[in-house]
Write a structure and sequence with these properties.
The protein has 13 helices and no strands. By secondary structure, the chain is an all-alpha fold. The radius of gyration is 19 Å and the shape is globular. The two termini are 22 Å apart.
């Protein structure tokens, strides 16, 4: 079953990417990212309620407060990612966001926590994988910055969306990457004190609270309306996000096959690039795809070592 859970996680998280992109890309809605946070908060809150009242997961204020710093790192990173989807193609954003595993590996190398699980030749391979990811991300930035404006406009014709050169467009997914990596690293430390099920519920409840705050700001303070047609993609994306997390837990639960399931799941950004090409009509240059290939190779290698 581990294989099918890994495939489900891959499909769900790539599905979350594309529907989140659809829900956040409308430049006419300045608060689409906050509405996306609300959508994810609602779906995660419902899942947390199911786990607590039906699944029997134990939750307390101690767990919520202990896990709060980790929850906030994850939530803020996702908000940064949602903002970034307004300014850059999903084909570029997703590989950069998924490079967070490389930063976690760097943190582990710096702090020495990698030594317990990665030794000898494997350690060299991990460093090589990190180098591939870093080279790919930096290369994407260079390609974006140096691309001719006319060529950019021409390749964006099919998608009916125009993205201009902007360091902000690259900085937002990079910010997601850094914050998500910090969250993952902090997660590994905090989970020594908490059970994974309780910590996940604490995260989902915190996301629900933040989602409510975003709703109050947008609907009551800013007095903006929520149109069902515009919100449906956001809630579909939120559902995929939550389902992907659920499948991920079961996919990596089988320790005998984690070395196989991890790289399958970590490659979901490849599916995101494919979906964006097929459904959003995004078209990149061969230079973009070359840099993306380097990032994906590094991410998959890190997945092999379950970083």
């Amino acid at each position: 079953m581990w294989f099918w859970f890994a495939i489900i996680a891959l499909l769900c998280w790539s599905g979350s990417d594309i529907f989140s992109k659809i829900g956040c890309r409308d430049a006419r809605d300045p608060h689409s990212h906050l509405k996306m946070v609300t959508a994810v908060g609602v779906v995660m809150g419902l899942h947390a309620a199911y786990e607590i009242f039906i699944g029997g997961t134990e939750i307390s204020w101690y767990v919520i407060w202990t896990y709060l710093p980790v929850s906030l790192l994850y939530i803020v990173s996702m908000a940064m990612g949602y903002i970034g989807l307004r300014y850059i193609e999903l084909s570029i954003s997703s590989p950069i966001c998924n490079s967070s595993g490389a930063l976690v590996a760097v943190l582990c190398l710096i702090t020495g926590t990698l030594d317990d699980s990665i030794v000898g030749g494997m350690r060299v391979a991990v460093i090589g994988a990190v180098a591939l990811v870093c080279a790919g991300v930096i290369g994407l930035g260079i390609v974006e910055a140096r691309e001719d404006d006319e060529l950019r406009a021409k390749r964006q014709e099919a998608s009916n969306y125009r993205y201009t050169k902007s360091w902000l467009a690259l900085c937002l997914p990079v910010a997601y990457c850094i914050l998500d990596a910090a969250g993952t690293f902090a997660d590994s430390l905090v989970l020594t004190k908490l059970s994974e099920d309780s910590a996940n519920c604490a995260y989902e409840l915190t996301f629900l609270f933040v989602g409510i705050l975003c709703f109050v700001y947008v609907a009551i303070i800013r007095k903006e309306k929520f149109f069902p047609k515009m919100e449906i993609p956001k809630y579909i994306g939120a559902t995929f996000e939550t389902a992907g997390q659920f499948a991920y837990i079961y996919a990596i639960a089988d320790e005998a096959h984690v070395a196989l399931s991890a790289p399958i799941i970590s490659a979901y950004c490849v599916a995101s690039v494919v979906w964006s090409r097929l459904f959003l009509k995004e078209k990149l240059s061969w230079k973009h795809y070359t840099m993306i290939a380097l990032v994906v190779m590094g991410i998959v290698l890190l997945g092999v070592f379950d970083i």
